[in-house]
Design brief:
Elements: H1 11-36, E1 40-44, H2 64-69, E2 79-82, E3 89-93, E4 115-119, H3 125-128, E5 136-139, E6 153-154, H4 157-167, H5 172-197, H6 202-213, E7 225-228, E8 250-255, E9 258-259, E10 262-263, E11 266-271, H7 275-293, H8 301-318, H9 326-331, H10 335-338, E12 386-389, E13 392-394, H11 397-406, H12 414-420, E14 425-427, E15 430-433, E16 440-441, H13 442-450
Parallel strand pairs: 1-5, 3-4, 5-6
Antiparallel strand pairs: 1-2, 2-3, 7-8, 8-11, 9-10, 12-15, 13-14, 15-16
Bound molecules: glycine (GLY) and manganese (II) ion (2 copies).
Length: about 450
C-alpha cells in the first residue's frame, strides 16, 4: 500500500505522544471525580449484544470512554480503573475460548502507562478492584451481575458532563490518530472514485473502498454512504445497488475510517461529465474550502453554520436555482430547502461526538439558532477541537414539495430544479483541527499526500 505522507511521525513517534495523553486523561478524570465527589473511576469496555432469540452477536462497539484511555477496541468485559494519585490499571479479559480467537493485548509502549492484569472470566475483575467501591463511579453499559459489586454510582451525570465536555479538546496523540484515520479513508476515496469512473456498481464501489482502506464493514466508523444519481439526495442513503447499468450521472461518497478508535468522516461528490452539475460541484468545493479555512479558536460554530447558509444561498442564486440573492434566500428559509442539515459536528471517538451543545463542564446547553434544528455543535471553538465542515445542496422531493406548498416555492426556479434533480445532490466534507491560527485540514492534507502536485 502507498506510503502515507512524509510529514507524519513514524509509529514509534505516535507512541511517544501516548504518555502525555494518559497524563491529560488523568487530570481530566481527577477534575470530573472531584466535581461528582467520587474517589475513583471504573470504565467498562462493554459486551456484545445478541440478535433476538439467536446466538449471533451484533458487531461489538466498545465504550468510547474505554478506548479513550487505551488503544483497545475489540475486547469485551475489560475495565480501566483510576484513582487520582495512583497509576491507572487495566483488567484485560482474555477468556479461554476455542470457538473464537480470544482478544490479544496490543503490543506497544502504551502498556507502560498501566498496571495490567489478565483475567479469564469477567467476574474475576472484582478481586482486582478496590474492596470498597462505594465512592467509585462506574462508566459504561451496566450489567446486572455488577449489582453486588457495590459501585457508588452508575454513569453519574456530573462526572459524565465533565468528561464529555473536555473530550472536545484533543491531545496531540489523538490528533495524530485522526491524521491517520484521514489518511486511511483518503486511500479508500481515491479507489472508490476510480471504481465509479470504471463502471462499478454502488456495491462494487463499496468493496473497492473497503479493500483500498483495509477495512471490513465492522471497522468503519459508520456505514458507507455510496450513492449514484438521485440516491445522493438521501442524506444517509444506506442501500448499495448491485446493478451497473444505471444512468451514473453523479456519485456521492460519505465514508471514513478508524485508527485506534478515532474516526474520520469524509464526503466527496463527483460529476460524471454534465457541465452544469460539475460547475455546481466546483462552486460547492470553493465555498467549502472557504468555510473550512475559517475555522478558528474563538469562533462561534453557529456562525459557521449561518455563514454556510449565506454561501449556499449565493451558489443557488448564481446557479439560477433560486430567483433571489443570497440574503433573501436565507431570510425566506429557502436555503434550508436545499441544505437541511448542520454544517458539521465534533469528531473523535464517535463520529458525532458528544457534548456538541454543552455550555460548560457542569451542565447547560447552548441553543441552536432558531429554525436550525439539526445543528449538532453550538459551542465556541477552542484549539484542539476537531470538527467536520460539510456543506451540502440536495434536491429532496419531500422538502421541495413542502416549499411549493408553503409559498417559498415562488423563490425557486423549478426548471433548474427539474434539470438537476437526477443528480441527487452534493456534499463535500472535511475534518478540520481548530487552532488559534490557520486550521489544519486533515482531509485535504491526506488527499494531497496521496497525489502530491
Ligand atoms: N457521515 C455522517 C455525517 O457526515 O455526519
Ligand atoms: Mn459528518
Ligand atoms: Mn459524513
Amino acid at each position: 500500500s502507498p506510503a502515507v505522507s512524509g510529514c507524519q511521525p513514524m509509529p514509534d513517534q505516535i507512541d511517544s505522544l501516548f504518555p502525555a495523553h494518559v497524563a491529560e486523561l488523568q487530570r481530566r478524570a481527577a477534575a470530573a471525580l472531584e466535581a461528582g465527589e467520587f474517589a475513583a473511576l471504573v470504565v467498562y469496555s462493554g459486551r456484545p449484544r445478541y440478535a433476538f432469540q439467536d446466538d449471533r452477536p451484533y458487531p461489538f462497539a466498545v465504550n468510547p470512554h474505554f478506548k479513550h484511555w487505551l488503544p483497545i477496541t475489540d475486547a469485551p468485559d475489560c475495565f480501566v480503573a483510576y484513582a487520582p494519585g495512583h497509576r491507572p490499571r487495566l483488567c484485560f479479559h482474555q477468556p479461554a475460548d476455542y470457538w473464537h480467537r480470544p482478544p490479544v493485548l496490543p503490543e506497544g509502549d502504551w502498556q507502560r502507562e498501566f498496571d495490567i492484569s489478565i483475567v479469564r472470566e469477567p467476574g474475576a475483575a472484582r478481586e482486582l478492584l478496590s474492596t470498597d467501591l462505594r465512592s467509585t463511579a462506574f462508566v459504561g453499559e451496566w450489567q446486572p451481575e455488577f449489582e453486588p459489586w457495590g459501585f457508588g454510582a452508575v454513569n453519574p451525570a456530573t462526572v459524565l458532563a465533565h468528561l464529555h465536555f473536555q473530550r472536545a479538546v484533543k491531545t496531540p496523540y489523538e490528533l495524530e490518530c485522526m491524521r491517520r484515520a484521514s489518511a486511511i479513508a483518503a486511500r479508500g476515496h481515491v479507489a472508490a472514485r476510480d471504481a465509479f469512473l470504471a463502471g462499478a456498481s454502488e456495491f462494487e464501489v463499496h468493496l473497492a473502498y473497503c479493500a483500498a482502506s483495509g477495512q471490513r464493514e465492522n471497522d468503519l466508523p459508520y456505514g458507507n454512504i455510496i450513492a449514484f444519481d438521485a440516491g445522493a439526495a438521501v442524506l444517509h442513503y444506506q442501500h448499495l445497488e448491485h446493478r451497473r447499468d444505471v444512468p451514473r450521472r453523479s456519485f456521492l461518497i460519505d465514508a471514513g475510517a478508524q485508527f485506534r478508535g478515532y474516526a474520520s468522516d469524509i464526503t466527496r461528490t463527483w460529476s460524471a461529465g454534465d457541465p452544469e452539475f460539475a460547475a455546481l460541484v466546483a462552486g460547492m468545493d470553493a465555498l467549502q474550502r472557504a468555510l473550512a479555512g475559517g475555522i478558528r479558536a474563538g469562533r462561534d460554530y453557529r456562525d459557521v453554520h449561518l455563514d454556510a447558509h449565506r454561501a449556499i444561498g449565493g451558489l443557488l442564486s448564481d446557479a439560477g436555482i433560486v430567483r433571489c440573492d443570497a440574503e433573501a434566500a436565507v431570510a425566506a428559509g429557502v436555503t434550508s430547502v436545499f441544505f437541511p442539515h448542520g454544517i458539521g459536528h465534533l469528531l473523535g471517538l464517535q463520529v458525532h461526538d458528544v457534548a456538541g451543545l454543552a455550555a460548560s463542564a457542569t451542565g447547560g446547553e447552548i441553543p441552536r439558532p432558531p429554525g436550525h434544528p439539526f445543528l449538532r455543535l453550538t459551542r465556541v471553538l477552542e484549539p484542539g477541537f476537531v470538527v467536520t465542515v460539510e456543506p451540502g445542496l440536495y434536491f429532496i422531493d419531500l422538502l421541495l414539495e413542502a416549499a411549493r406548498a408553503d409559498g417559498r416555492g415562488r423563490h425557486i426556479h423549478w426548471d433548474a430544479v427539474e434539470r438537476l434533480k437526477p443528480f441527487g445532490g452534493i456534499r463535500i466534507e472535511d475534518d478540520v483541527v481548530c487552532t488559534t491560527d490557520a486550521p489544519e485540514n486533515l482531509t485535504r492534507d491526506a488527499f494531497a499526500a496521496l497525489s502530491p502536485s
